[in-house]
Amino acid sequence: MNVVRREIVLVGAPVNDGAGQKGCVMGPDAYRTAGLGETLKALGHSVTDHGNVRLVHPGNVAPPNPVLRNYETYIGWTRALHAKAADLGSSPVFPIYLGGDHSMAAGTVSGQARAAAAQGRPLFVLWLDAHSDFHTLDSTASGNLHGTPLAFLCGLSGFDDLLGAPLEHPVSPENVEIMGVRSVDDAEREMLIGLGVGVSDMRRIDESGVGTLLTPFLDRVREANGLLHVSLDVDFLDPEIAPAVGTTVPGGATFREAHLVMEMLHDSGLVTSLDLVELNPFLDERGKTARLMVDLTGSLFGRRVFDRPTRSF
Fold it and tell me: Out of 102, 229, 259, 266, which one is annotated catalytic?
């Protein structure tokens, strides 16, 4: 088995206030209990656990839209995780951020983008999710901030409070691929189309297959000498196999589709950082979802059933 040994750093992000349903605060410890570290070590990697990031308290900040929930907490987590990710992104390690709801990506991905810019390389983002999370602070009707991080990361306006200044290193919308989406609001759809974000919904996956859709995106990352951040939401998966999420949407990725994505990502050698988000252990069935997410991470880091010859690119 030809596996590149990685120095992996686990970072807990017990972010709970971006979602409408409580429970994601327990996510980081559920991954640890499900044996994430042991799985990666068994594959030959070095694993260090940095524990959980602590929330930064930004002080009193008035939300620009009265429907927004837990706005100050969103700011605090974004700043704390941004600083941590920018630091890890500038060192020769592979960070895995253990969530926590998807609002945490505002900090993890922006920090990785800052580190990528310092290296003179573009950051690409593969967003594996049932939702596009592309609302602005003005367009969201629910006020649940886990629906806004990707709009912030792509440089849309109105988010200056998050880091206390305009986002210095936004991710180019053309460098984002959302895969598995099956729930998009009208306002999000308009912005996604207008900005040229790549979107592969479940119909495209049904018609073409995940391999056909993922390959050209990986080719673009490679051609641009880019770094690739993967943000894996539990609800990318069909709720029949992954029930531990507060935003279940039927018709998600199957067990094999999800593993194929991870296996292809491993084979590409392009992935440099990873989010595992929206695991709500309170809704799980004896750890079923946590174990599946750990198994998928194992596939990303080289676990395979039958070793195949590696083709050079």
Answer: 102
